[in-house]
Amino acid sequence: MTGRYGSIEAVLPEVRALLGERVTTSPDERRHHGTDEGWQDPAAPEAVAFPHSTEEVARLVRLCTEARVPVIPFGAGTSFEGGVGALHGGLCLDLSGLSRILAVHDSDLDCLVEAGVRRTQLEEHLGRRGLFFSVDPGADATIGGMAATGASGTTTVGYGTMREAVLGLTVVLAGGEVVHTGGRARKSSAGYDLTHLLLGSEGTLGVITEVALRLHGIPEASAVGRAGFAALAQAVQTAIEIMQRGLGPVRLELLDEVQVAASNAYSGLDLPRRPHLLVEFHGTPGAVAEQVAAAGEVAAAHGAQDWRSTSDAAERRRLWKIRHEAYYAARALRPAVRGMVTDVCVPLSRLADCIAETRADLDASGIPAPILGHVGDGNFHVVLLFDPEDPVESAQVRAAHDRLVQRALGMGGTCTGEHGVGHGKLRYLAAERGAAAVAAMRAVKAALDPQGIMNPGKVIPPE
Ligand SMILES: Cc1cc2nc3c(=O)[nH]c(=O)nc-3n(C[C@H](O)[C@H](O)[C@H](O)COP(=O)(O)OP(=O)(O)OC[C@H]3O[C@@H](n4cnc5c(N)ncnc54)[C@H](O)[C@@H]3O)c2cc1C
To answer: What is the pTM for the complete model shown?
Structure first.
């Protein structure tokens, strides 16, 4: 707790009266809730509450507002930029108890879920009805956490990010007011777009308690192609040409040779140790067959060595499991140390240069660092494996990370395509958006959260 904030003791008796056993100050729970998958030091909240409804969230936020106690929302803790850390103490709201799928409207292709619903829970529920929700970050995140970070994933090149997938939100603002930001209409010109203001706000403007989502019908046919390349540049150029020719992939993923070696070891594979591309198409059987064949031709023209494609469901699942395990495979390259996972995104025409310069820079530094990514969007990730106890390695990693972000910004890109700012990327926001834009964000924050209690220390850099 810091001076501008009130003591948790001021609210605990009333929180206990409201939630009974569903609030804890246990050190283990506090530590868990102050830790995500990122490289920043954990910061435990002073207490953790487990509300079960929007009304309970609103009452908790109201209590915290009155006592100036920080409120930190927690979904599944799978984010990478320190977003769940309680930098100024306060009360963590674990949203996992808001886990109901409230409605599915099959013929309108939309649904309404509570914020704590997990991605795989929704996938299973919808799959039985022939529907799917398209945003797939790989991790079993909550829908509320995905909305809060503006998440995306492997299918974004075909179906969009959370910013395209969310129709509306129910949000508890600082002060405890409950606001509905959108409805079920596919589009609306009614007033300010609060939905998109809240998406990606990482708990700094309010607590999301319900999310209305666009859905899709499971396509009639799907096929995946994969190929290895002698050089990273060939793989990246293939991805760029697949996009520029409008072949319409719904997934287009790169694993560089360091990542392929890691995935071989971790997932028991024997892929040739070369950069690989995975590409998926959805549609009618005829259209998918044409798209896959055209992608194979593009890959061959760029020197692909072993292009293969499959429409077999089990084989497709196996390939995407490898991609989804890639982060854990990368971590296993150096199990005893920490991984700094970072992502940048650049315009497609600069992707080849950005990845090539990054690979050369990482190789020169000697830091084990696989590159993988959603290259169809110009987005890639680097997992930098370093020992935080070693000051030389830590300094090297921070410097390589700074160079990566500056390189992406210099190419007209962004410091984060999908992981968000948290507090890990605070120092890059002004460089990317400019001082005036950051001042405008600060004004929005001050208007909606005048006491600064909503997830303080995140997204907006201090003045
Ligand atoms: C293996 C792996 C792969 C990943 N791949 C991707 C990827 O491809 N694309 C991608 O985008 N991300 C990826 N991620 C990161 C992560 O899954 C996403 O950032 C995800 O959206 C976080 O959801 P969560 O429920 O875990 O949120 P948390 O980590 O719990 O929280 C994230 C932030 O959102 C806030 N928050 C959480 N819930 C709410 C709420 N209901 N209301 C308001 N604020 C809230 C928190 O305070 C915090 O600031 C990956 C993570 C892992 C571990």
So the answer is: 0.97
